[in-house]
UniProtKB/TrEMBL annotation:
Lineage summary: Eukaryota, Fungi, Dikarya, Ascomycota, Pezizomycotina
Stored PANTHER family: ALKALI-SENSITIVE LINKAGE PROTEIN 1, ASL1-LIKE GLYCOSYL HYDROLASE CATALYTIC DOMAIN-CONTAINING PROTEIN
Disulfide cross-links: C87-C125, C182-C192
Name of the protein: Asl1-like glycosyl hydrolase catalytic domain-containing protein
One cellular component term from this protein's GO annotations in UniProt: fungal-type cell wall
InterPro entries: ASL1, Asl1_glyco_hydro_catalytic, GH
Organism per entry: Trichoderma gamsii
BP terms from Gene Ontology: fungal-type cell wall polysaccharide metabolic process
């Protein structure tokens, strides 16, 4: 089967964050850390994926990331749009309105696409219940996105599949799952805590992503707010049981 150009190096598996890259990198192809120019010695040999996180007005990191994006002196292979513009929380979600998003997209992101970068859509906080991206998609974008970036925070594969189906059916573009984690999102965004459940969930979701023709890339997130069992590394820097479960799952494919 021919490799899709929107799957970095022909491998779907990736990581959001670098804490476990040293353990996973032989089985990954790409990673991101929510910044314009991801850099980590742990990520050597992997494709770093650039992101314009937000509009610069929602926390110190947001401001730094906007400035860094504006000063990029080369065109990344892949550029992702805003991180959860449809939710609030300084340095957690970008919290920008659609008009601001369109302006930033047309002035900073679309030109990267015109220079050859593959563009990823803004990724929604509200998953399949979103309305922001629908409105954004109806505006005058000087260049649309090439793949739809999505976040999946669900506790079972039925919910995962529903998110995938929504984004494919709505936008008809290849999908990158740029963050995923086991979360009871309909219960005040409560992270899963049962290790056995998480281990099985990771195995199941990787199988689902690998088998789904619409998902071209996916990334285990080591982000904050996901409880004490999900993080892929322990406090001493060793691989956690959850991190090992991901390693086991992706090792079957790459």
């Amino acid at each position: 089967m021919a490799q899709h150009p929107l799957t970095p190096n022909g491998r779907k598996a990736g990581s959001a964050g670098d804490t476990a890259l040293a353990f996973w990198k032989d089985h990954l192809s790409w990673w991101h850390d929510w910044t314009p120019a991801p850099s980590s010695p742990k990520g050597a040999g992997l494709v770093p994926v650039s992101m314009l996180w937000g509009g610069g007005n929602n926390g110190q990191k947001d401001a730094q990331r906007l400035q860094q994006f504006e000063h990029l002196n080369s065109t990344p292979a892949y550029v992702m749009g805003f991180n959860e513009p449809d939710c609030s929380g300084a340095d957690v979600s970008a919290d920008i309105d659609v008009n601001t998003g369109v302006s930033l997209w047309n002035s900073l992101i679309a030109p990267m696409g015109q220079k050859g970068a593959a563009l990823g859509s803004p990724a929604m906080c509200r998953q399949k219940d979103e309305s922001w991206l629908k409105q954004f998609n109806q505006q005058q974008l000087t260049k649309s996105w090439d793949f739809t970036s999505i976040h999946i925070f669900k506790s079972d594969m039925t919910g995962v599949q529903a998110d995938i189906d929504y984004y494919w059916n709505t936008y008809q573009k290849p999908l990158w799952v740029t963050e995923f984690a086991c979360v009871f999102d309909q219960n005040n965004f409560t992270p899963c805590t049962d290790q056995n459940q998480i281990n099985q969930w990771i195995s199941d979701i990787v199988d689902l992503f690998e088998a789904n023709e619409h998902v071209l890339a996916y990334a285990y997130t080591d982000g904050l707010g996901l409880g004490s069992v999900w993080p892929p590394v322990n406090s001493d820097g060793s691989l956690s049981q959850s991190g090992q479960a991901y390693l086991n799952a992706i090792s079957k494919y790459h």
